[in-house]
Amino acid sequence: MNVADNIQQITDTIPEGVKLVAVSKFHPAGVVQQAYDAGQRIFGESRMQEIDKKHTELPGDIEWHFIGHLQTNKVKFILPYTHTIHSIDSWKLLAEIEKQASAINKPVCCLLEIHIAAEDAKYGLTFDECRKFLAEGLWKDCKFAYIGGLMGMATYTEDEDQIRKEFRSLKQFFDEVKSGFFSEYDNFSELSMGMSGDYKIAIEEGSTMIRVGSSIFGEREY
User: What is the rounded CA–CA span in Å between residue 59 and residue 182?
Assistant: First the structure.
């Protein structure tokens, strides 16, 4: 498993303008360093304890993304070194991020997590819940926790038509809320969708940010 070669293979196939988030969760800092040495700068983690430890062991110019379900009581701990949070699924969580970000005077990119998969296990807002959330308008008062786009995960299935349909529906929804709520907001620009098994389809359907773990680092080390 050559991490540098894997990163090169992926970056060679993704168009300019698509960001690669290397999902480093469950992999030790030494392996993450290999990816860093190969030029990768954006890394995704899903557990507070893990990102807290790694950010002290690894170079300071890494752009850390939190990609897991986030509890409000963990927000203040990860915020000082976290650039983007991919999993906003409630006003309560966004409000807590705003509170903690304003306390340290730091902007944080927040992606609204949208439920597009035919699986109950995944988190996220439905399209209608997201429309209601945006229409209520409380997010407009946030000075530091800004909504930078949407995130979604397709169903874990071999059926590529279903995956494509789900990604396409999220891109159409992204375009809808961009024109309906964020036409004046340049910051609203990211569509985070696509993982190791389906990122090529996601890019074809309009993803601007892919979250790739096993295709870079191999199977997770639990």
Answer: 34
